[in-house]
């Protein structure tokens, strides 16, 4: 079933294993739970970012000075 | 806190004695090396002592003095660097065993060159969290650095070794780095002064990167003027961006994100400090989003930087660092770009914030240093790992690129408590003037080095 638009599906251990393989990383299965919990935290951060609707033209993503 | 020693000499006082011939640079460096050795790695903060390099250089400083020449404003002052500054002829480990077979550095990092050109003498490298990814300096490969005020507690991190080397009085100054609070958190937890400059203000050449869009070189010290002098030396005479405003400094406490999750032991002293400064408060809107953006940027850039090592053998990394970096590798590019876009947007908005207050302040960390046995803290009512969360008040400031100065609150507390002063970008002279005012008013003070128990 399609996800609600803009809302990311939570990763699973299986999806983590598949994505790491696609990324060319051969990490033992022991790593998967730790990667999963970290990715879920990052997804929460991403959700916080996405909830703030910043027009992509309102600021540059490539400016590196304060 | 444990019984205290008297305050050691400042770097400026040491240099004055060397320049006047009252003491030799060799004796100062020998004493610092001996003290670091006697304390041992866990307690001194040092991972490597560079006797064979340091003592001839100190002798060269003494020869200049004997010849009637001036070795510079830091003549004979021993200092250390976090183990991600290149030191010629040494491996820059960045706290990771993945770099054990890396090439030797061919030259010193620019910041080391500049301090030594001013007469200072590098005596060793200092412990850190692996690649700077953590707030506790509990390194599976190079050991845990203990807090000198209570060795059962963490020093904070990532540059915990650099803070401890100063807090113990082993050296008066350390060079360190700050990505997301890396030197500000340990400065707060060990009771020393830590400068995180404006992004891009101090030279990063020869410093092993972690997150290029956030990394800065900074300094730790026990004395405000020492830290200001190090900054001056590292800036090589670059003009200041702006003149600090004259007259009364307007302080403001940041609320909301920066007022949530404060521990009981911090809240009372922080409120008392605020009362003395006039109880003015401000909001720094979108701080939570700033922290989220910083976390995304760190994960993505850190993972990208270390991708070759992760591909070669992920098991060489410490498990917490490895898992965070592997997760970072899986982030979509769009999310990283959104975080960078938010960064630009909030930096532009922040310029207006400082029309209302000159210096803003927050806690440097939520409370006392957590214990090594159970390194956790409370966040939103839950017990969570301190390794990833001690920098909740420093992270948003990093994303904004602002300068910050951490000072210990004055008072008889069981452990040091630090506050973080923040100014507009490029306004470090104002930060130093504000800090001097707080010290002179008795609101901030660096505790003497604790005696070993």
TrEMBL record, chain A:
Top-level taxonomic group: Bacteria
State the name under which the record lists this protein: DUF4089 domain-containing protein
Organism in which the protein naturally occurs: Novosphingobium barchaimii LL02
Automatic annotation (TrEMBL), chain B:
**Which chain regions cross the lipid bilayer?**
none
InterPro entries the record matches:
Amidase, Amidase_dom, AS_sf, Carboxybiuret_hydro_AtzE
Q: Which Pfam families match?
A: Amidase
Please state every residue range assigned to the domain named Amidase. Answer: 29-431
- Tell me the superkingdom of the source: Bacteria
Record-level Gene Ontology MF annotations: catalytic activity
Q: Which residues form a coiled coil?
A: none
Q: What is this protein called?
A: Amidase
Supply the source organism for this entry: Novosphingobium barchaimii LL02
């Amino acid at each position: 079933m399609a996800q609600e638009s803009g809302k990311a599906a939570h990763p699973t251990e299986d999806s983590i294993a598949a994505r790491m393989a696609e990324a060319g990383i051969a990490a033992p299965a022991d790593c998967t739970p730790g990667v999963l919990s970290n990715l879920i935290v990052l997804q929460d951060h991403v959700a916080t970012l996405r909830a703030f609707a910043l027009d992509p033209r309102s600021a540059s993503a490539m400016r590196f000075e304060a | 806190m444990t019984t205290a020693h008297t305050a050691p000499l400042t770097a400026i006082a040491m240099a004055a004695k060397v320049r006047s011939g009252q003491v030799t640079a060799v004796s100062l460096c020998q004493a610092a090396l001996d003290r670091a050795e006697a304390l041992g790695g866990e307690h001194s903060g040092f991972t490597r002592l560079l006797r064979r390099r340091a003592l001839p250089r100190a002798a060269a400083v003494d020869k200049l003095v004997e010849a009637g020449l001036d070795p510079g404003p830091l003549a004979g002052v021993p200092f250390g660097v976090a183990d991600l500054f290149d030191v010629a002829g040494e491996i820059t480990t960045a706290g990771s065993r993945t770099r054990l077979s890396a090439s030797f550095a061919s030259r010193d990092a620019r910041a080391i060159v500049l301090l030594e050109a001013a007469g200072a003498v590098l005596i060793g490298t200092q412990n850190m969290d692996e690649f700077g990814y953590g707030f506790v300096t509990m390194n599976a490969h190079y050991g845990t650095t203990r807090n000198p005020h209570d060795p059962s507690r963490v020093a904070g991190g990532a540059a915990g070794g650099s803070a401890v080397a100063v807090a113990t009085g082993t050296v008066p100054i350390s060079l360190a780095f700050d990505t997301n609070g890396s030197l500000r958190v340990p400065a707060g937890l060990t009771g020393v002064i830590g400068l995180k400059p404006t992004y891009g203000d101090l030279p990063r050449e020869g410093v092993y990167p972690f997150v290029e869009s956030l990394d800065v070189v900074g300094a730790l010290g026990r004395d405000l003027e020492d830290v200001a002098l190090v900054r001056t030396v590292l800036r090589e005479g670059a003009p200041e961006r702006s003149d600090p405003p004259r007259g009364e400094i307007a302080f403001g406490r940041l609320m909301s994100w920066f007022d949530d999750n404060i521990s009981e032991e911090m809240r009372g002293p922080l409120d008392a400090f605020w009362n003395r400064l006039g109880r003015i408060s401000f909001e720094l809107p979108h701080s939570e989003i700033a922290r989220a953006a910083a976390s995304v940027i760190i994960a993505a850039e850190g993972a990208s930087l270390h991708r070759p090592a992760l591909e070669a053998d992920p098991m060489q990394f410490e498990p917490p660092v490895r898992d965070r970096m592997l997760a970072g590798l899986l982030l979509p590019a769009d999310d990283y770009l959104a975080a960078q876009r938010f960064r630009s947007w909030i930096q532009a908005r922040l310029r207006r914030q400082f029309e209302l207050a000159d210096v803003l302040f927050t806690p440097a960390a939520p409370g006392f240093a957590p214990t090594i046995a159970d390194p956790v803290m409370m966040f939103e009512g839950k017990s969570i790992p301190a390794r990833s969360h001690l920098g909740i008040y420093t992270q948003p400031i990093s994303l904004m690129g602002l300068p910050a100065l951490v000072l210990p609150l004055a008072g008889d507390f069981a452990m040091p408590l630090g506050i973080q002063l923040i100014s507009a970008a490029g306004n470090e002279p104002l930060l130093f003037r504000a800090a001097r005012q707080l010290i002179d008013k008795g609101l901030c003070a660096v505790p003497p080095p604790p005696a070993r128990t």
